[in-house]
Structure prediction request, 307 residues.
Amino acid sequence: MSSETATYERTARTLLESLPYMRRFSGEIVVVKYGGHAMSDATLKQSFARNVALLKYVGVRPIIVHGGGPQIGDMLNRLGIPSSFYKGLRITDDATMEVVEMVLAGRVNKEIVGLLNLAGARAVGLSGKDGRLLEARRKATAADGSAGAGGAGAEDGVDLGRVGQVVRVDTELLRTLSGAGYIPVIAPTGVDEENGTYNINADDAAAAVASAVRAKRLLLLTDVPGVLDSNGVLLRSLSAREIPDLIADAVISGGMIPKVECCLEALRGGVEKAMIVDGRVENCVLLELFTDAGIGSEITTDSGAAA
Prediction:
């Protein structure tokens, strides 16, 4: 057998392996949080756009929620506005909020929309303000324990400013767009009852959207392979009940904790499975959804759930 024939046979086997998954997800909503290195590498950006376009072509209804932290940081540096963080959240005063909205809802969102359109999909860019898509309130610090006026931590004195958390998602808008064949691409900014704007963590926004639309899957693209055990081996499948012990044993630690908590929030909201996927891998979305093994860590409500 020639090497060329062997390559064709491997391709055919891959396509056959993907067929039952294409059937399973046809007509279903899949929410993808797009962020990290996948948003900065030119090859990975093109790969992501083609992956999402293919999802649409085989009947999946993707919704994209994107980040943009590095791009925001770059613009703040250009404007001489200092950046500061609290437990991974960008402290967002009024001046920073203007930049966040400009970068996320402007340059970053429209670049993603353009890439998807070039890949053959029909994408529509949205921010949380459009149609009051993401209604939000001021996010409290852990020390505060409430969303009181000012949002300051009562014990540590930290004021997150215009960092928000989603309290309502307009599912009608998303379902209307998705049902009409469009791919919603959401910049994670929210709006409150007085038209105030909030900076929302993209993972949190993706989990809220996935819960609200009862997505079949939530994928969080990251810059790590997934959840690793104490020996650095990828944990491919976890149940929600395992998570507290893994956190207590410091197997899950640091920045992975809020990502796992977002997954748990999505599961509580009705999402069947949530995945933490290495966005640095080309075609990571298709490999996770349409192959038997996947490439990341899946979190389910029941460790015995079907794939």
